[in-house]
Specification:
It is a single chain. The protein is mainly alpha-helical and 22 residues long. It contains one helix and no strands. It is rod-shaped, with a radius of gyration of 10 Å.
């Protein structure tokens, strides 16, 4: 559960970064 939550958080963080760059 901890790893999955971390993965989801990372995915959301990277998505926001990509959106900001775009």
């Amino acid at each position: 559960m901890s790893q999955i939550a971390l993965r989801c958080f990372q995915a959301l963080f990277y998505s926001r970064v990509v959106i900001c760059y775009l």
